[in-house]
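BUG-836 | component: ligand-complex export | severity: low

The export step for iron/sulfur cluster jobs runs without errors, but we want the raw record kept on the ticket for reference. Input record follows.
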Amino acid sequence: MVKDYIDIRAVFSKEGRAVFISHLDLMRTMQRAFKRAKIPVWHTKGYNPHVYIMFPLALSLGAESECEIMDFGINMDTPMTPQEVADRLNSTLPQGLKVVRAYAPQTSHKLISAAEYEISFFSDEPVKLSEELKNYLSQQEIPVEKKTKKGGVTAINLKEHIKNPEVKAADDRVLLKVALPAGVEININPQLLIDSFLSTSSAPISNVSVKRTKILDLNGNIFI
Amino acid sequence: MLKDKIQQIALQAQKPARYVGGEYGSVIKDKSKIDVRFAFCFPDTYDVGMSHLGMKILYGLKNARENFWCERVFAPEKDFEKLMRENGIPLYALESMDPIKDFDFIGFTLQYELCYTTVLNMLDLAGLPVRAKDRHGLYPIVVAGGPCVCNPEPLVDFIDIFILGEGEEVNLELMDLYNEMKKKGASKEEFLIAASKIGGIYVPSFYDVEYNDDKTVKAITPKNGAPQKVTKRVIKDFDSVYYPENFVIPFTDIVHDRAVVEVLRGCIRGCRFCQAGYIYRPFREKSVDTIAKETKALCDNTGYEEVSLSSLSTSDHTKINEMLNTLADYTDKEQISLALPSLRIDNFSEELLEKIQKVRKTGLTFAAEAGTQRLRDVINKNITEDEILSTCKTAFEGGYNSVKLYFMLGLPTETLEDIEGIAVLTQKIVDLFYEINKGKKGKTVNISISTATFVPKPHTPFEFEPQATEEEIKERQKHLLDCISTRKIKCSYHNQNVSLLEAVLARGDRKLCDVIYEAWRLGCNLDSWDEHFNFELWQKAFERCGVNPEFYANRKRSFDEIMPWEHIDYMISKEFLIRENKKARLAITTRNCKEGCSGCGIKKECGGVYCG
Ligand code: SF4
């Protein structure tokens, strides 16, 4: 079949109350936003046509992000610039969701290979906690059990997957910046690291929050 | 901050999006500029409450006023309630995430009797005393509306004000009055006295009820200048009544997630078992123009891909064909599907059927209610067997192969012959299907029969009637199964204990307040959910309070008995109800309002299309 749409990739942020929108609910939310915004979004053909939207990388419920990716098509016979698509969506998205840029994608989403996170550990004893975190990260081996897609578990060395960690203590928290594998090949949920660290730490922690800050390609560049 | 705390624990609950608000279309205001804050509470879970049209209307209506802010509140599921109580989080409103105990009004909508314990639980979760007499300050004023307040007596201990009838005008009047009196520093008592002068406002603490030795009501006496009877409110000019142009769009899946347009209110039919058919009278409708405009505005603003028409009987709209044509043109163009949930079978024409099919083919459902013509005449359900069969014929020819039929068991005058009639009628439908699809291979039909025990309701001609007992119902269920001879017919029953409890609460008096309180203390909550309904706890509550449920459910009431709701006027006169009851016993039908007025008591000034 002849391709009758133009690909568009939108990068959007997810914060505030929007962090509670699950992956499935995000699909519905975006479909309705497209409809309200009167964007000529491409529908799948066939018996039950529906808006085609793809989110190549899932985000855990509760996590914030500055860089979620959404791929979709615009009907070729009613073209609209990426900028206009972004503006229209932003005028009708629920609070906490915002398109930061939209463009013609340069690469396949299959090339996503890592993501950067900022993890905040809230604590009354940030100094002690940051020491613990540094010690934890400097271990040679960090054995964890990872869930497999088939529902089983496999043992992996998490240490191998942790890239460029930076630890900083602030007034009420310890901030960890870290890159972890993401995408089709291997995907490490930051929660795995958090749970593993929490089970070793003794400093009091009142809350943990996660924000995804970058999505990276094979070469460690920002995925576009 | 409460907001942060809520967000932290929400993640531990199932579907946290239900507990944090932030949906598109939710209304956020600057509270420093607000005079009156209203917490609109739906005493059921988010998924159910968010599907409810009345709430959407009143939410939009109140928020359209600059100095009012109406927010939504739902009952938490048990997992989240536990987290809330453990973490000391009081019941809060979804928009501001402020605790509702500090609001000016807490308003409940009572859609079914089984939500009563949830009302108590929500008040308690808010950190308020559940009994009205223990809440002394001017605010929060706890109000309740919705169909169940046509007999509010079982809840009088807990609610300060009941709002009878349609809410679009009276809610604003009440809030304006409150605003005025709050500024003057009025007390709760002073406000209640002033409020009781507004039409449709019932302040239960201003009425004394005395009982006879046989436990029936002896007298209901007003005090503090309250009226002898409180009459429900009716919107006279229904075509121009407020209707929201936008809905709150949930993130999570809810029961009915679509645009809804209300096309008419009231019903012309007068089925004698149906409370909605009487308490929403008279029949009024919106013009095709208004319906089209509201449909377009809602679809545009919400982004929904499905719109449904809401009414008790959409096909009774005087311009049904024009309306469907206009709407179908629009929805076709916009790739929106049109759902028509309440089309009646007796004027379900071929033309109409085609129209629905153009959009989507779903199963066919009939509320036949009774198995024989005699019994259908008793209940004034004016459908003949021929009409049912001819509609099925059209449907089967159009490719349908499943039919769902609803019946009631335990109707007044019912005999085993009527029960057998259900099986006979259903078998005829099966036979008809195979006759039409003769010679076609692989065609099978699925008929499901769903039966519920009849619950006599206030303000209907059957308000005097006893509900059938459990033994009687069991016997009839067994007889029905014995009469069915094919596996093409599937039969399901409603929970009998639920029907019994509904019957007790629907026609109960003030003595039930203690029973409801006790049941809630014992742990009853979210009773309308099968998985939460616990009849044993209810039985215990009845025992502890020395109240006999059979007195309310299974007792025949005489025409001159003073009903617990005698002072609650839904404009249907008692003379009319008695007349209808007597006709029912003789299996004499009553014409519908369109064919001619039967003088039910509704006043001409209410704006009914057919009232003379
Ligand atoms: S007054 Fe007459 S027309 Fe009006 S609702 Fe009653 S019976 Fe129907």
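Assignee comment: Attached the raw record above. The first helix of chain A runs from residue 23 to 36.
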